[in-house]
Amino acid sequence: MSKDEKEKVPIVDKELDLSNAGRGVWLVKVPKYIAQKWEKAPSNMDVGKLRISKTPGQKAQVSLTLTQAVVKLDPDAEIPTEHILDVSVVTKQTLGVFSHMAPIETNHFKDASCSDPEKLYMEGRIVQKLECRPIADNCYMKLKLESIKKASVPVRKVQPIDKIVQNFKPVKDHAHNIEYRERKKAEGKKARDDKNAVMDMLFNAFEKHQYYNIKDLVKITKQPIGYLKEILKEVCDYNMKNPHKNMWELKKEYRHYKTDAEKKDDDKTATDSDTDH
């Protein structure tokens, strides 16, 4: 984002309630299976009990025991109930917990008691981080074994077929390839006529038209294309520019086109001969 775009972003001031800023709170990281159970639990259900054991001269021991009500939310998925919380003190960071009061809507109308839905609340400052880890008992080992089995299940499976499946065999050779090879063979078998005879055919063709492409000349002379090009290079020029691009034309020394006067004389002679008749 450019500097100008940043300046265009409107800044909205919101009221922040700091009445609980002095309260210390814990940030607890729990395993995924506990979080899933707590998400399913109703808001009025006790989800667990926290025990703090203090021994003089030693670090406090914190443990968490899940309630049977939470565990039985899904009886088929058995999870460990006893957990230990490893405590670490937050010293070099300032972390806080904030909440946002959303308006309560009843019969499509906002609750009047929520006067400022945009207000933010600071619920407390994080003073300790806790890592929740289960005790490695038989229940936990069974849970890990099931998770490993699920992870090892391949995404793709071999499926047996009990009926004939319509398949298409690969074509050994396509029709257009066969046609192309046969045409090439036919061209290769063309007998080379005498060079002078080929040149006579070319001169006769160029008396009718001034420009020809190579395909038409092959049809007229019935000669192999390689042999024909050798002769054309001697008596013809190949046009590289429009309007007759890729066309062959007789070289200047071989050209003999009648002038307008000659054409008029020919026309006059033809007219006189018709009159005599």
UniProtKB/TrEMBL annotation:
GO terms for cellular component: transcription factor TFIIF complex. InterPro entries: TFIIF_beta, TFIIF_beta_HTH, TFIIF_beta_N, TFIIF_interaction, WH-like_DNA-bd_sf, WH_DNA-bd_sf. It is found in: Nucleus. CDD domains: TFIIF_beta. GO terms for molecular function: DNA binding. It comes from the Eukaryota. The keyword Transcription regulation applies. Pfam families: TFIIF_beta (PF02270), TFIIF_beta_N (PF17683). Residues 191-255 form the TFIIF beta subunit HTH domain. Residues 23-100 form the TFIIF beta subunit N-terminal domain. GO terms for biological process: transcription elongation by RNA polymerase II; transcription initiation at RNA polymerase II promoter. Keywords: DNA-binding, Nucleus, Transcription, Transcription regulation. Belongs to the TFIIF beta subunit family. TFIIF is a general transcription initiation factor that binds to RNA polymerase II and helps to recruit it to the initiation complex in collaboration with TFIIB. This is General transcription factor IIF subunit 2. It comes from Glossina austeni. The lineage of its organism: Eukaryota, Metazoa, Ecdysozoa, Arthropoda, Hexapoda.
